[in-house]
Each structure stands twice: as C-alpha cells, then as structure tokens.
Amino acid sequence: MSKLRPVLRYAVLLLITAIFVTPLVWMLLTSVKTYDAAQQVPPSWLPNPFSTYGYDQILNNTANPVLRWFLNSMLAATLHTLLVLVTASMAAYALARMRFRGRKVLFGLIVGTLFLPPTSLIIPNFIIAERLSWIDTLAVVIVPGAASAFGVFFLRQFFLSIPAELEEAAVLDGANQWQIFRQVLLPLSKPALATLAVLSFLTNWNDFLWPVYVLFSPERLTLPAGLGLLQGAYVTDYPVIMAGAMLASVPVLILFVFAQRHVIQGVSRSGLKG
Predict the structure, then answer these.
(1) Helices (runs of H) and strands (runs of E) counted in the chain
(2) 66-71-76 Cα angle (round to 5)
(3) Average of per-residue pLDDT across 24-36
(4) What are 266-269's contacts with CB under 8 Å, separation 24+?
(5) Average pLDDT over residues 136-144
(6) Alpha carbon of 108 to those of 52, 192, 202, 253: distances in Å?
(7) Own/partner pairs for 34-43, CB < 8 Å, 24+ apart?
C-alpha cells in the first residue's frame, strides 16, 4: 500500500492539472479554427484546417482596436497594482507594529468591508468619480479600489510573522519608523508583496463590470470590456472571441510563471500569527 501512495498522489495531481489545463487548450485550439469549423456539431478538438482568422479579425479590425484595449489594460493594471502595494503596505505596517488607540477597531472596520458585495459600491464610486471628472478616463479604473482591504489584512498578517527583534535592533542602530518600514520590513516581505501584486493585477486585469459602467469611448476601453463588444447579438464568432481571450491570458500566465515562487512563500507565511 505504501508503494501505491506516490502513484495515487501523482495520478490525482495529473487529474487536477488536466481539469485546469483542458479549457486553456480548448481555447487555444478554437482560436486557430475557421468560423465554420468552430461551429461544427459535434465539435472537434483539432483545427481542420488551421486558420489565423480569429487573430486577423482582432488585430486588423480598426473598429475594434484590441491592441489599444490591451495596452489600456496593461497600464491600468500595472498602476493599480503599484498603488495597492503602496497604500496596503503602509496601512498594514501601522496596524501591525504601531500602538495607538482604536487600532483594533480600525482593523476590524477595514476587514468588515470585505463582506460588502462589490456591486453595492458601484453607484457611490460612480458618483465620486463623476465629481472628480474621472469618467471615461483610465484614472477611473486605476484609483478606485487602490485602498485594498484585503491587501491590508494580508500584509498585516505577514508583518506579524516577522520577529520584532529585527526592529528592536534597527532602533538601537538609530533607525526611525520610516527607515524600519522601508529598510527592514519591506525587503523581508518580498514574497507577500509579490503575492499581493499578482492578485491585484489579476483583479484589475479581469475586471469587466466597472469598466463597462465608466468607460464609453472605444479607444479608452480595457480589454475585458472591449472583448465584450466582440459578442454579437445573434451570432457568436468563437475563433475571434477565443483569440481575444488568448491575448488576455498571456500577461497573466507570464506574470504567474515569474512570481510563482514568491507567491507560494507569501501564502504559506501570511497566516502564521493573528
């Protein structure tokens, strides 16, 4: 029985991998089919014939500037991620290391906002963005949500897992609070920061509902909102939609490949202390 356990373990891992990889493979193969082949019933896995029709449509169609949407999404997701890292790390440090009246109550209020449905915030956020003249600009998909309650909670838990003796030693060397935060805690928090960066990037990159409400000009749309325009009212062009989905998935896959090691470390250490 002991010899069968590794075999069963790998069999389960292969099954789970197949469950997650199969949709990606299907999406890739469908993106290189012709329109008629993608509509075939029953569907076939392999493209016959091989075609770049879907990619030609999304890359050469001036009515739907997919590359512009892609760049908009890259800019918005990158800047949003940087803002989240700055605001969340500072707030988390204050809540984890500084002692002040109402600290626990404030942390409880921040965590409590995680239980609010995101859709309930659309109207107040829209009103605020309109008064700031951010509607139909990239700022409206970058700044709202940059004060991440999850980011504060996640980094606070990680900061609590770092021994306080390191900060005490820095104080003895004459470091102030800002120097301790920047030169001691942040370098030790690279796994947690990388994890939060990936999650924040994914959240902004995949956001569909909010950009649909606040972006109106075709050249200012982000990729998820723009790809929604490719869905026809009566006809679904699967190769075009799948080609757009493949384009949207490439940055996410690259980001996770490079940040995978840090993500695993960050998740494993973030909940050691409460």
Answers:
(1) 15, 0
(2) 125
(3) 86
(4) 266/158, 266/191, 266/192, 266/193, 266/194, 266/195, 266/196, 267/195, 269/158, 269/161, 269/191, 269/192
(5) 92
(6) 53, 21, 26, 34
(7) 34/239, 35/237, 35/238, 35/239, 38/237, 38/238, 38/239, 38/242, 39/238
Report how many domains make up the chain.
Answer: 1
Asked if the model's pLDDT at residue 205 lies above 60, the reply is yes
Q: What value does the mean pLDDT of the chain take? A: 84
Q: Domain for residue 144, yes or no? A: yes
Q: What CATH number does the domain containing 101 carry?
A: 1.10.3720.10
Domain that includes residue 205, residue range:
68-237+250-269
Report the alpha-carbon distance of residue 143 to residue 134 in Å, rounded.
Answer: 10
What's the whole-model pTM score?
0.83
Q: For residue 129, what are its two tokens? A: 């963005």
Cβ–Cβ under 8 Å, residues 65 and 218: yes
